[in-house]
Design goal:
Strands 3, 4, 5, 6, 7, 8, 9, 10 and 11 form a nine-stranded mixed beta sheet that branches. A two-stranded antiparallel ribbon has the order 1-2. 42% of the residues lie in helices and 22% in strands. The protein has helices at 13-28, 31-38, 42-56, 72-96, 122-132, 145-154, 201-206, 218-225, 236-243, 254-262, 292-302, and strands spanning 61-62, 69-70, 105-110, 137-142, 159-163, 171-186, 208-212, 228-233, 249-253, 266-268, 276-285. By secondary structure, it is an alpha/beta fold.
């Protein structure tokens, strides 16, 4: 019986280009969304996908009226392409490290809404990195913590900044800084005009609250257990939207809520039993090869703020 499998013996620059297009299509969720990302037409993307399938001898995805979805083979090729791109970048970084000047890429994933944190050192570290290596290309992805960890494991990201949730095998975590959370309400909410000394836990638990639908530590989840949770949000901005309706109370980081507190649109409900801190960490893949760009960034991010 003839063997119909098409084995890949060599990868050309053209193949790598096709794989990069394929990766963008997958991460954008389809051809239409990838047009903007890649700055090429949908028809050109379609031709590239067909060329890649022909060169690999595999059917990678379903596309049509039902939408875009990966086949099992497509999922495996996508995962393999992440490892390939990470290996290529590691090779380039290691070769560039021979030169006196830092060059290469830093691919970093960050949880959203950290830029307003007063003692946040990410911007300082990125500035120092660009000063030491003006040719360094920095790529930031603002995505949920679980996706950051997955992409660091896959090698698509060099480093991530995530809250301390549940450590995953294969990753190394290093404490970075803490973020304070407080319970907030809008100026239209009945609790807004009650003095701090008159607030009681029973009062707070009588009102509707919003809780995050993203992953939390067991300790953090405990603060929501006694609240009258009737709404959820996928991120902090969603929580803020619902608090600003005046219909809900909810937790926000103090640095993120500060703008609305200063404008008089929100107030914190100062009860010690309803406040908590979250530890943020850098995350790396265990056993990853030394990368001068990443190591320099990590050194800078740990330095005290000036």
């Amino acid at each position: 019986m003839p063997n119909n499998k098409k084995l890949v013996s060599q990868l050309s620059n053209f193949d790598i280009r096709l794989l990069k297009i394929f990766r963008s299509v997958v991460e954008c969720g389809g051809f239409s969304a990838a047009e903007v990302e890649l700055n090429i037409s949908r028809s050109a993307i379609s031709i590239s996908m067909s060329d890649l399938e022909a060169r690999l001898g595999l059917h990678l995805c379903q596309r049509g009226r039902a939408g875009f979805s990966l086949t099992d083979e497509g999922t495996q090729v996508y995962q393999a392409s992440l490892q390939l791109m990470a290996s290529l970048e590691n090779f380039r970084t290691q070769v560039n490290s021979i030169h006196a000047e830092l060059t290469g890429e830093l691919n970093i994933g960050i949880t959203d809404n950290l830029v307003t944190l007063e003692h946040m050192s990410i911007s300082k570290a990125l500035k120092a990195l660009k000063t030491k290596g003006p040719e360094i290309v920095i790529n930031i992805r603002m995505i949920p913590p679980n996706e950051i960890e997955r992409y660091v494991l896959d090698g698509a990201l060099h480093v991530g900044v995530v809250p301390n949730l549940r450590p995953l095998q294969g990753l190394e975590y290093s404490s970075l800084y803490e973020e304070q959370y407080m319970l907030y309400c809008n100026y239209q909410h009945p609790l807004f005009n009650i003095a701090d000394e008159d607030l009681t836990p029973k009062q707070i638990c009588e009102y509707e609250a919003v809780a995050p639908s993203y992953a939390q530590t067991a300790q953090t989840r405990s603060y929501y257990q006694n609240l009258n949770t009737t709404a959820t949000a996928t991120d902090r901005e969603g929580v803020a939207f619902l608090i600003l309706t005046g219909c809900f109370i909810g937790y926000l980081p103090t640095h993120y809520a500060k703008r609305w507190v200063v404008s008089g649109e929100m107030r914190a409900l100062y009860l010690d039993d309803f406040n908590f801190n979250t530890d943020y960490q850098t995350v790396l893949r265990k056993g990853s090869k030394p990368n001068q760009v990443v190591e320099t960034f990590l050194q800078e991010i740990k330095l005290p703020s000036q």
